[in-house]
Amino acid sequence: MAAKKLEAMRQAWVKVQQHDDASWKALTETFDTSTVYTVIADARGIDLPFTAKTVTCEQVLLLAGGGSALVSGATTAALTVVQTGASGAVVGGSTFVLRARG
Hints:
It is built from 2 helices and 2 strands; from the N terminus they run H-H-E-E. It is α+β, with helices and mostly antiparallel strands. A two-stranded antiparallel sheet has the order 1-2.
């Protein structure tokens, strides 16, 4: 992720969400922030290349950034994360609604 965007997220983490700098440092040391995926508006879905062993507990951090055209308070997207097993069967998931700040 570009340093400018990562810094903007750090500012929101510390100032808006009121976490301390130590927690941001721990977050960026724990999770990979160098890989960026771009989703186009008409995409029906994407696959993230992530495999976890069934006997482990894994943590995944997805940072969502928006463009300057976002309307304050409007619903801008719904993100559904579906977890599948080795056979392709759905084993879990969550849906997140993303809105612009304001």
